[in-house]
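pinned: reference chain
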Amino acid sequence: MNSTRNANGAGQATLKTRILRIVGTVLTNATKLNSLPRWAAVVSVLVLASSVQPVAAQPRKQVAVLSLESDMVTDEVAKGLRQAVCDALSARPDWEVHETQVSLAQLSFAHDCSPTEPTCLRAITEQFELDSLVFGRISRRDDEIVVHLSRFEPQAGAVERNADAAFASQAVSPESLEAHGRTLTSELFDARPPSVARADEDERSSQLAQRLKPAADSGVSGRAVAGYSLLGAAALSAGLSVFSFVQIQNAQEDSGFNNYRRAVGRMAPDVQDVCSEVDAGKRYGVSGSDFERSAISCNRGQTYQLLQFVFLGSALITGGLGAYLLLGDRPERARPEQRAQALQLQPRFSRSSAELSAQWRF
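pinned: its structure tokens
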């Protein structure tokens, strides 16, 4: 950076020397021809020297345009737009672009600071000896490409300007990127009256709100997503509860288990739970295969009976929570006491079955 500024100073000093030499030669020849008094020549040289001096004292300010953070946009488009901004800045007589290919996220990581903090941005500008820093983001929203750029001024210690642009993704071309780059650069660096700046900012905010409003109105709230997810989990749990019930019925209809149950009925009619007799190892005169199948049926029946109540309880809990979230997400059309009674769940249990009765009022 210092070498660049020294080179600029050396070039301006060389230019000044050449101008003075040319003027001196012209004035000397003019004096020899007696076409100009010597005192006028001296005054002319002094005036020209004083006019050249301010030019040498005005070096170009340094600015860096960081790589744009891209979201669902190709690198070609992101790099093309950044290059267009760099070209637009390079064409200005008061700015010189500092070449860099890093992003704000990479630099903030290197400085171990947050990119949203002014102290972090100031540290980055001090590292490269910059007078201004441009950074931003380019992303895709539906069929549009949305760009947001910011200009940080280290002397002010804050972001001085913001610039936004939105254009159709199908209309991207090098020419269009060049035009958008010039427009964004103008918004970031051209002086504007305060009233015009506020009006432009309000107009951009209004346009951005209009673009975002349809997506927000047509979307589904997080509460509704959670409610539908819970209802889906409730339906799955109810299905697994039905599956468990079918497995219990299959276990009770096993031929080996039925032979063992009839044998228990003949020899010990007072027994209430056949599976408890199987667990005790009492065969009641049945064959080894029937007794083994009875043990398998009892184990399977007991396992699925437990799972049936677990899945049923899960269906009740998740279904109730899902309905509560969905009802709470609906517009305030009914009174609170009416909304509380919109969904009624009434479970019924017995020794051999379970039932869930649901009533929904619209």
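why pinned: The beta strands are 61-65, 69-71, 95-98, 132-141, 144-153, 158-168, 343-349, 354-360. The CA atoms of residues 62 and 300 lie 79 Å apart.
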